[in-house]
Amino acid sequence: MRPTPPSWLKLLVPVKRTVDYAVKIRVGPKGVETKGVKHSMNPFDEIAIEEAVRLREKDKKAIEKITVVSIGPAKASEVLRTALAMGADEAIHIETAEDDVVEPLAVARTLKEIVGREQPDIVIMGKQAIDDDSSQVGGMLAGMLSWPQANFASKVDLDVAAKTVTVSREIDGGLETLKMSLPAVITTDLRLNQPRYASLPNIMKAKKKPLQKLKPSDLGADFAPRLESVNVEAPPARQGGAKVESVDEVVSKMKEAGVL
């Protein structure tokens, strides 16, 4: 067996199982209803998986391994299998109880432990999860690791020989380009790419790829909640509009509504 070339890189891609983006959210007495609701991979994490696979396709000698990791209940293994079918090589599942809510700080601390085990050169992840919209894990993880970070990436260029990565990100009024030495943390935005559909042959191959199961205790993880939700309620129902015959009537209606 040939020794692994020193220029090869390892990528780690965290993914999350969330309520499917097409589902109409229902709010119950304890928050958003998740039981009996379709779940799928967080869309921003799909983009991260796609980008990791594309980086390897650009230079097959550049990427040694793509590892995906998820923290969640037993069914989170489904999104890991999807990631494997898209092109990842192996998966790690930190299994939690069905009703556990893992807060961003706990996620970042757990991923730090995984980074210590896997020793990746790049952690590439979605900029946020569509269920909590916290957009905190990437920044927290980079801070804990003391790694450079580039958030909301819209373009990623990897220089394997120099061990650097150049990231373009959209900001108000234009684009910002960052060049970082590896290892680094990158979070992905919508414009980065269009994720592929997993083909049937790749779905079948994914069933044979390694998926490691871990318990939170294996990593010394503490998922005890630090935040308390005081109240969760649905927004008031929209009221129907009304037709008016003139501008004067529009002004009159606005005055009656107290908005003018």
TrEMBL record:
Subunit structure, interactors included: Heterodimer of an alpha and a beta subunit.
Domain of life: Eukaryota
CDD domains in UniProt: ETF_beta
Chain's role: The electron transfer flavoprotein serves as a specific electron acceptor for several dehydrogenases, including five acyl-CoA dehydrogenases, glutaryl-CoA and sarcosine dehydrogenase. It transfers the electrons to the main mitochondrial respiratory chain via ETF-ubiquinone oxidoreductase (ETF dehydrogenase).
GO cellular component assignments: mitochondrial matrix
Domain Electron transfer flavoprotein alpha/beta-subunit N-terminal: 29-223
Phylogenetic placement of the source organism: Eukaryota, Fungi, Dikarya, Basidiomycota, Pucciniomycotina
Cofactor: FAD; AMP
Protein name: Probable electron transfer flavoprotein subunit beta
Family the entry assigns: Belongs to the ETF beta-subunit/FixA family.
Localization, UniProt: Mitochondrion matrix
InterPro entries: ET-Flavoprotein_bsu_CS (IPR000049), ETF_a/b_N (IPR014730), ETF_b (IPR012255), ETF_beta_N (IPR033948), Rossmann-like_a/b/a_fold (IPR014729)
One annotated GO biological process: fatty acid beta-oxidation using acyl-CoA dehydrogenase
Gene Ontology terms for molecular function: electron transfer activity
Keywords attached to this entry: Electron transport, Mitochondrion, Transport
Cofactor note: Binds 1 FAD per dimer. Binds 1 AMP per subunit.
